[in-house]
Amino acid sequence: MDELGKQEFMKLYLYPSRSQNEFLELNRQALRELGYEVKPVNRAFITDLLRRKKDATVVLHWVEDRVYGRTYRTVFQYFFKMIALIIFSGLFAEKVVWVRHNFQPHNGSKHNYRYRFLCWLYKLMSVKAIPLEGYYSSPSLLHPLYKKDSELQAQIEQPESLEPQKSNLVVFFGAVKKYKNLHQILDTWPKHIPLKIAGRCTDTEYQSFLLNKITQLGLNVVWDNVFLSDEELNDVLKNTKFVLLPHADNTMISSGSFYHAIGEGCNVLTNSSRFGLAKSKQHGFVSIYDPKVISEAYLNSIYQDRTKVMHDALSSYGQRQVLSAWRNVLAVSER
């Protein structure tokens, strides 16, 4: 049987099996399009791999990031579960794909010994990290957009429906967490530039810290401190010119917020992280935040219309490109 025929009948186990993040489902769909039978990591997974047929692929997401929890019992249960998952997969699967999302866990540090141990264990099992961005290493995957190609193309072809009156000049959206670095951006944010924060903060101490900072600095900030549904968020983005991504450097390798934003045609303001610098070199609609030059006039001068952003997003991160990246990664892991 040739390689293509072999792939069409291969089994693939995906961890985690469920997530609130739509990213996982989008990748599940892509893998199915490539002919893989995508299954969850459960008891049947253990039984199947113990048959020693070495005919399955295991794709692991966020394993090394799961080293924190509310209690020590939870932490160590996850930790030993992740150790077992990596070793078992490495011993009994035909190939293991470690998808690396972050430089370090969002809720902690790269110096955490559990995190470092899991990264070392991957290396011990000869499993190479496959990142979501090419600037990190090659081969790499692509973060999918949150819209189908056909939907994006239809919107691009009807530009009159994409340019309503923009009520938001700059928006920061999503869960408000320390690693996203919003507090440092506020320190230099110009008082005359309106900023909308659209997202919930579950850390009451951090929430108070941000609110006090906004008040003390006299910033023109409106904060909708609520969880937004996909529909509500899309409505916000459709009426937004720029999305602010101030993530601290060496935290996340890729940003789902970036791909959500450009799928709605938003321009992006980002800090000078490795991710931000890579995207600003790649796309004209991405700009590095510089408090010395930012003004409404400056933002309006660099703004690119939504159809241009969406066209660029489609050509760079559309479904065909995502499938091509997966083909490349899976072929590399077979060599």
Search tags:
single chain; 335 residues; alpha/beta; six-stranded parallel β-sheet; five-stranded parallel β-sheet; 14 helices; 44% helix; 15% strand
Characterize the structure shown:
Helix content is 44%, strand content 15%. It has helices at residues 3-8, 22-33, 43-49, 72-92, 113-124, 149-156, 182-188, 204-217, 230-238, 256-263, 274-282, 296-302, 306-317, 319-334, and strands spanning 11-15, 37-40, 56-61, 95-100, 129-131, 168-173, 195-198, 221-224, 240-245, 267-270, 286-288. It has a six-stranded parallel sheet with strand order 8-7-6-9-10-11, with helices on both faces. The longest helix is centred in the N-terminal third of the chain and has 21 residues, at 72-92. The radius of gyration is 21 Å and the shape is globular. This is Glycosyl transferase family 1 domain-containing protein. It comes from Paraglaciecola agarilytica NO2.
